[in-house]
Specification:
Chain lengths: 364, 357
């Protein structure tokens, strides 16, 4: 521990933007609408913005901690603050959390492929091919991962144009009257929405890999703002397109929107959309899996490649043993709920403890 | 070692294609239209048409009919008759017989909404008479499904018929302030799409006749490119207005608690054909404008009366009202709707009358 990341492994500050957006946007954006409308109805787009403000504050806190501890990541900071045992246990929990996140992303994506495209496709084959690709990318080092995150945001960006087509059937009265729900309902929706913003805590792990890290803060904020823009525009278009009662019956509203698109050369657009989504899911899985294995390396000095192979085997095994969509939903709900507490409780607490620690250190 | 790695990767990548089932377009029977009738013993009878593309570019249509209680049951039975596996991915038209529609079509629509391979643009319609009769007719070189789909589309685009498809029907079905409607197809010497079938929830309850379709559309949507016939008292057509551009706004009056609804319709059109000896001048045009306004307002009055009697709201007035009223209550609106004061205010502007004096 304590070994600094050499300069030639570091990435340019602006790539932080893509690292943040790439890990936040995933399978969630295909289905978040029907979840957030339950408490706040069609005012839920306001909740998306409220949740985003919360995430901005958390990013601010994370930089507050990290900026004072140059060259250190979360695992160093935790051992520094809580001592060896508690620090490492917290580190292991973080690693397991990231591992589960990548598992959920992969499993939910394969579920979409199974429901929408190929009902008979084998979990083993898709999972293995996908994980081989992920391991190959991680093998290239953090620079390559950052590159994949960049491509994972830029290439699928054309999909935002698909939001224009459903406007043919837009029903603008749907959004009126604005603000017809109580503050509590809005906040409940915002809480459900935070789940779609998770993953940015990987910043704790890759912070030492950023060149001039203090300058990256604004890019991180831009990243969250861009994610918010994507979510809000998707939500508003779906709200105009579906009726409020109707959207609650739809599992993947975004894919449903794609069903209305008909072009001369392609009868149904969702097949192109789902295939393109591979590029959105890839950085998701890659970054979280990397963060998890990186943690193992930092704490127990184990070879990162070996950890990854073990991880891949674990993911495949769990995937083959946990069957049934309701069980998968349970796991994903567990992970997102844990993620919520990790982000909204643990990070502020860590920030306060660190602040006190800082004061004590200074006074000495 | 490296070679082995490359080999394994290649194997995985290439062999993964084998795990998906083979569904090749040429080897599937793509259902293009589907129709539901009731048999005498109250069983559901499904009819499907499958276009069969011949090598000389003509299309013959294969028709299969089976009865059952579940749609899936009918499909299974149909599959045992077809020479190729039936696939529903290119479904264009779904037709319901009047009797079927009267019993409610929620379940029968749900099958198609649930299936990811059916597009949201599939057209739905109610048929006066047997759907099997519609689907088994000869339509020149076209298959029945394709012909009907194109017939629907051109009527939607040219504003003769308000647009409807499976998505819009579902939208209206779930909506708190709107009831669904569907085009009503009449079967005579020709198959015509010219009337409106009105729904309460998912049940067919009434219809608007052919000559009300235009005014109904003008009260519901903005559209362009339609033609309207102005009649003299005896019912004989005296003038035709083309290329109509119609916009509508809905006004709820000053007191939102006690709404007085005015549907303002503004029409702009071109006068092309008229049955009169006189020369056309400004005065004459004004007279025609006035005639058209009166006629449409009269029709609108009758339409509103029908809608209120049936207590259906396909115009989506409830949704508009919900947008303005923060304490919208669906039940209250339903009770209120029957006795609401609804009027239509039509404003016709004839922009020109062609290139001759």
């Amino acid at each position: 521990m304590g070994k600094h990341v050499p300069d030639y492994f570091k990435i340019s500050p602006f790539l932080t933007f893509f690292l943040i957006t790439a890990v936040q946007v995933g399978v969630g954006i295909l289905s978040f609408q029907s979840i957030i409308v339950e408490p706040a109805g069609y005012d839920a787009w306001i909740s998306i913005i409220i949740a985003s403000i919360g995430v901005h504050i958390l990013i601010f806190m994370m930089y507050k901690i990290l900026n004072q501890e140059e060259h250190k990541d979360i695992f160093d900071i935790q051992t520094m603050l809580f001592g060896k045992w508690i620090g490492k246990s917290l580190g292991v929990i973080t690693c397991v959390y990231f591992l589960l996140m990548s598992f959920v992303a992969l499993r939910l994506y394969i579920e979409i492929i199974q429901v929408w495209m190929f009902p008979q496709i084998s979990l083993l084959v898709v999972g293995t091919v996908f994980l081989l690709l992920v391991l190959y990318i991680i093998n290239g080092g953090f620079k390559v991962i950052a590159g994949i995150c960049f491509l994972g945001v830029v290439i699928p960006l054309y999909l935002i144009l698909t939001l224009i087509f459903p406007l043919e059937f837009a029903y603008y009265d749907n959004l009126k009257p604005v603000l017809n729900h109580s503050v509590i309902e809005l906040l409940l929706s915002a809480q459900k929405m935070t789940l779609s913003y998770l993953g940015f805590s990987t910043l704790f792990v890759y912070y030492p890999f950023l060149k001039e890290p203090k300058k990256t803060q604004k890019f991180a904020h831009f990243g969250v703002a861009f994610t918010t823009f994507l979510y809000v525009s998707t939500a508003i278009v779906s709200f105009l397109f579906y009726d409020e009662e109707q959207i609650k019956t739809v599992i993947w509203p975004t894919l449903g929107i794609w069903k209305i698109i008909e072009m001369p050369f392609v009868e149904r657009f969702e097949y192109i959309g789902i295939s393109s989504w591979t590029l959105v899911i890839l950085p998701n899985i890659t970054l979280t899996l990397w963060a998890s294995s990186r943690g193992m390396k930092r704490m127990f000095n184990v070879n990162q490649r070996k950890t990854l192979i073990v991880y891949a085997i674990i993911i495949i095994t769990v995937m083959l043993t946990v069957r049934g969509f309701d069980n998968i939903d349970k796991i994903s709900e567990l992970v997102t709920r844990f993620g919520f507490y990790y982000v909204f409780v643990y990070i502020p607490v860590l920030c306060i403890i660190h602040f006190i620690f800082q004061k004590v250190r200074e006074s000495k | 070692m490296k070679k082995i790695k490359v080999m394994i990767t290649l194997c995985l990548l290439l062999l993964s294609g084998c795990s998906a089932s083979n569904e090749i377009v040429d080897e599937l029977a793509l259902i293009s239209a589907i129709g539901f009738d009731l048999t005498d013993d109250n069983k559901l009878q499904g009819t499907i048409t499958v276009p069969n593309f011949q090598s000389d570019k003509t299309v013959t249509t294969e028709v299969f009919t089976e009865t059952g209680t579940l749609i899936q049951e009918i499909e299974a039975k149909l599959n045992s008759e077809a020479n190729q596996p039936l696939a529903i991915g290119k479904l264009e038209v779904i037709l319901y017989n009047e009797k079927v529609a009267k019993q409610g079509i929620r379940k029968m629509k749900d099958v198609f909404v649930r299936d990811p391979s059916v597009g949201s643009r599939a057209r739905m319609a109610v048929v006066e008479g047997n759907t099997k009769d519609v689907l088994t007719r000869e339509y020149w070189t076209h298959g029945a499904g394709l012909y009907l789909a194109e017939m629907f589309d051109q009527n939607f685009i040219n504003g003769r018929m308000p647009q409807s498809n499976i998505h819009l029907f579902t939208f209206a079905l779930y909506s708190k302030g709107m009831d669904p409607f569907l085009p009503l197809v009449s079967v005579g010497k020709m198959v015509k799409i010219n009337q409106i079938a009105l729904f309460k929830e998912d049940k067919y309850v009434g219809k608007l006749p052919e000559d009300k379709t235009f005014t109904f559309h003008a009260m519901k949507d903005n559209f362009q490119d339609a033609t309207y016939m102005i009649k003299k008292e005896q019912g004989e057509v005296s003038a035709a207005v083309n290329n109509i551009m119609s916009t509508r706004t809905v006004d709820f009056g000053e007191n939102i608690k006690d709404p007085k609804i005015t549907i303002n319709i503004r029409l702009e059109g071109i006068l092309r054909e008229f049955k009169t000896e006189e020369e056309v001048d400004k005065q004459k045009v004004n007279k025609i404008e006035k005639q058209m306004e009166d006629q449409m307002e009269q029709e609108a009055k009758e339409i509103i009366q029908t809608l209120q009697e049936l207590n259906v709201d396909p115009l989506g007035l409830g949704n508009k009202y919900r947008g303005l009223n923060r304490n919208f209550d669906e039940k209250k609106w339903d009770e209120m709707y029957k006795d609401l004061d609804i009027t239509a205010n039509v404003n016709v502007i004839i922009r020109e009358f062609g290139i001759r004096r």
